[in-house]
Amino acid sequence: MPLFPNYDDTALYFSMVDEQGPWSRRSIKPFPLDGREWQTAEHYYQAMRFADEVNVAAVCDAHSAQDAVRLGKGWFKRKRRDWKALRVTMMTRAIYTQCQIYPDMARALLETDEQILVESSQYDYFWGCGRDRRGSNHYGKILMNIRAKLSEV
Predict the structure, then answer these.
(1) Could you report how far apart the first and last alpha carbons of the chain are, in Å?
(2) How far apart are alpha carbons 144 and 112 in whole angstroms?
(3) Which of 28, 44, 70, 117 is in the most buried spot, having the most CB atoms within 10 Å?
């Protein structure tokens, strides 16, 4: 087996942080969830790292998605103990809710038919495919699962 897997030209490679992308977690598409109004999926995701109201509110009120990331990744803040087990669920909830509210987002996802969706981050081996394309691609899997759910309706 080669060191790097072959590039799959049938897959759709995208960036989850490209604010212009149809499924970006950083694009400003406000949505209500868990009793709050979130500016972006990134805001929701970063806030859900915390169990305490002070940090959740601070992230929710962050001026930008980048600020939400900065607040969510602070070293000295106490994170939820179950965060690693919940992070995929929390991201799924945010993106699915946005697809319910924004028909253009859902339509763009449905238009990919059965295409494999790959988050092309070179450095993120959890959400993306990583530089050697051996990453878990959880963000792409979330989108494909949401697409399957949307196509049932």
Answers:
(1) 41
(2) 9
(3) 44
Is the pTM above the cut of 0.85? yes
Rounded Cα distance between 25 and 31, Å, is 12
d(CA 118, CA 144): 10
Tens digit of each residue's pLDDT (9 = 90 or more) over 102-134: 999 999 999 999 999 999 999 999 999 999 989
Q: Which of 120-123's residues contact partners 24+ apart within 8 Å by CB, and which partners?
A: 120/13, 120/14, 120/15, 121/15, 121/16, 121/17
Closest CA to 34 of 97, 85, 88, 82: 97
Rounded distance between C-alpha atoms, residue 58 and residue 52, angstroms: 10
- Count CB-CB contacts under 10 A for residue 26: 22
pLDDT digits (tens, 9 = 90+) for 34-51: 999 999 999 999 999 999
